[in-house]
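User: We ran a pulldown and think these components assemble together. Before we commit to crystallization trials, I'd like a predicted model of the whole complex to look at. Sequences follow.
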Amino acid sequence: MSGLDPVSGSRGIPPAALVVVRSLPYARVMSDAAPAFDLPALLRGARSGHAVALGAQYVAHGEDWCELALPYDRRLISDLATGVLASGPIVSIMDTAAGLAVALKRGAMETIVTLDLRIDYLRPAHPGRRVHGRCRCYRLTRRIAFVEGTAHDGDPDDPVARMAGSFLFNDGPAPARAA
Amino acid sequence: MSAVRLLPYADFLGIRVVHQDGGSPLLAMSYSEGLIGAPGRLHGGAIAGLLEIAAIAAIDATLEEPDDPRTRFKPINVTVDYMRPGKPVETFARGVVVRVGSRIGSVHVEAWQEDPAKPIAAAQMKLLIAQKAEG
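Assistant: Here's a predicted model for the assembly, 314 residues in total across the polymer chains.
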């Protein structure tokens, strides 16, 4: 499906098939260690779950960031009169892209727990436009990852939302707690 | 309860109004496979979607004319705290209006599953309340 125009929408193609690969090969993206997983292949193989149900598409990634996109879909609007996309699906792609950004920076695909998210909705997305969500993990501690992200609907300099969040990942056994 | 019924996105998530006794409506989101994030857990975005819709429904219920199709709710921002993993079961949410003025509404919302005393997530949401004519 890599020849599919990423902007062209669904036309009855299963959402998982819409995950479009147009990133650089890992060898050029990950300069140091070999990657522990192949993100585009992983996302291409996704057949179920919330991101697939939303029709989320892979766009690109780097060593500490990931960009996904959400094609415009009438099922996801919040207002029948205007056709404006609801804010919830934007949270979903930002949360998904954030988790992937953490996994990329850690170099391992593992369960990443969202602790909190804050999203500022800067303006409504234009009806009909695909919304991109790009998140970057800018700090890792032993257990916690901090992520920032931006969503836009065509022009990265005119964003629709900004996001900040913190995430927990599993890194060995938790310290014992007093009973 | 048009604030919920009119949202195609609420249908997409499988959200319905369980009851509304003059106060904030209680919403429920049926479990479906399309809500799953990590294996066996609800996606954080789906939980956030439920919280946001419950926040809008709570503000709408305080208005002089609830269900008014001319009313527009524009999200300003939301902060979501995730407290427990979301199991693959039905999830409930209800908002408590912190303050509502003529233009801005602020809501605290919690989501839970088996036990309302053990919320899986909570959110603070601010909304702009507008009439259609204001665009």
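The mean pLDDT of chain B is 91. That may be worth checking against your pulldown data before setting up trials.

User: Thanks, that helps.
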